[in-house]
Specification:
Layout: E1 6-11, E2 14-19, E3 56-60, E4 69-75, E5 78-83, E6 94-96, E7 105-110, E8 114-115, E9 126-129, E10 135-136, E11 151-152, E12 154-158, E13 164-166, E14 172-173
């Protein structure tokens, strides 16, 4: 069970026990004490601008599960994301660490990070973009005519069964 961090503060002339803030909702939380979350980390919402993970927010155009690779696209002037897919011209621009439903604002992590929401990886093995935001362990055969117009995109190497160290290599259309 997580311990809730508390501190003593003077409120309206009296000493009161106050719960430390784990996530900020903005300027209304100015001056409040902060505490780490259940993972022992500070929430990016309490960090100064420019400190924290480099992410982009885009509207999910479809349901996207945690750990999936996504592709950015322009939908009538709105940046949206969808599942990356080697079979239909959608290279991976990043990945998500949470699950999003259609029209949710999705937080997308750029390649060159560690996607720690994977399953079934082999430590040290290389992975390429597959279909529906997934990965494959064998690159597409560029000599196979069935792969014409598919995308071959190297994504990285497995650190563990659940972590892929991603790289931002460009892709090739076969």
């Amino acid at each position: 069970m997580a311990t809730i961090s508390r501190y003593l503060a003077r409120v309206a002339g009296k000493t009161k026990q106050v719960v430390a803030l784990v996530a900020s909702s903005g300027s209304s939380d100015a001056g409040k004490m902060v505490a780490t979350d259940t993972a022992g980390r500070l929430s990016p919402t309490v960090m100064p601008l420019g400190i924290g993970p480099s992410t982009n927010v885009a509207v999910a155009s479809e349901d996207i599960s945690a750990g999936k690779f996504v592709n950015f696209f322009n939908d009538a002037g709105v940046l949206k994301c969808r599942l990356a897919d080697n079979s239909n011209g959608r290279p991976a621009d990043g990945y998500v660490t949470a699950t999003y439903v259609t029209n949710d604002p999705a937080t997308v992590y750029p390649l060159d990070g560690v996607n720690s929401n994977m399953t079934g990886l082999t430590v040290g093995a290389a992975y390429w973009l597959g279909t529906a935001g997934g990965v494959i362990a064998v690159p597409l055969d560029e000599e196979d005519s069935n792969n014409a117009n598919f995308i071959s995109q190297y994504l990285g190497k497995a650190k563990s069964a659940t972590e892929l160290i991603t790289t931002d290599d460009s892709y090739v259309v076969l």
